[in-house]
Specification:
Layout (H helix, E strand, L loop, with lengths): L3 H17 L14 E2 L7 E2 L2 E3 L28 E6 L13 E7 L8 E2 L5 E7 L4 E7 L7 E2 H6 L7 H8 L3 H10 L1
Antiparallel strand pairs: 1-3, 2-3, 4-5, 5-8, 6-9, 7-8
Length: 181
């Protein structure tokens, strides 16, 4: 019976220690902070000055345009992205979200990319040839890094010998890809 006591004490101490630890995002300073370009505002939150809550209206949280298809013919990717972040919808400031509408022509694509300050959830709403998708992002300013332009279009350029070896490509292919960006 006494052999189990140290084990029971250890479990009790661990349970107590874990009950005191918690991990969560800190609460915002206020429920909302509609961004404003007026530097006379006294409150500066999340990189933006805040509009006085007395002057906040429903229009600060409204964006029209996500119902309008984007022009997929203006680029060689055959896609259009309408990103709505805090610069377009001022009410998103401090809410930690943004959204996008993506339109695709047949065989169009959104190139491989990452968002360094956010996670993306994409939902295809319709289409097998022309397609429409909406994305939700976990940041008011998620950022964007496209893989191909970062690797092959960097300035200064990455040494072609490194790219040739890393991607196991012929040097002529690497030279061609670097000229595309």
């Amino acid at each position: 019976m006494m052999k189990g006591v140290p084990y029971l004490v250890a479990v009790a101490i661990l349970a107590l220690a874990f009950s005191l630890a918690s991990a969560y995002d800190p609460s915002p300073l206020q429920d909302f902070c509609v961004a404003i370009n007026n530097t006379d505002s006294a409150v500066f939150v999340n990189g933006k000055f805040c509009k006085d809550p007395i002057y906040v209206t429903a229009n600060d949280f409204f964006f029209s345009g996500l119902n309008i298809p984007g022009n997929t013919t203006v680029n060689k990717l055959g896609s259009s992205v309408n990103l709505v972040k805090v610069d377009k919808l001022l009410g998103l400031n401090t809410l930690g979200i943004s959204l996008a509408r993506l339109d695709f022509a047949p065989y169009g694509l959104n190139p491989p990319h990452i968002h360094p300050r956010g996670t993306e959830l994409l939902v295809v709403m319709e289409g097998q040839t022309n397609a429409v998708a909406f994305a939700g992002l976990s940041s008011q300013n998620p950022g964007l890094i496209t893989i191909a332009s970062t690797v092959f279009g960097s300035n200064p350029p990455i040494n072609p010998n490194v790219l040739t070896k890393a991607f196991q490509l012929d040097k002529n292919v690497v030279d061609y890809l670097q000229k595309q960006f």
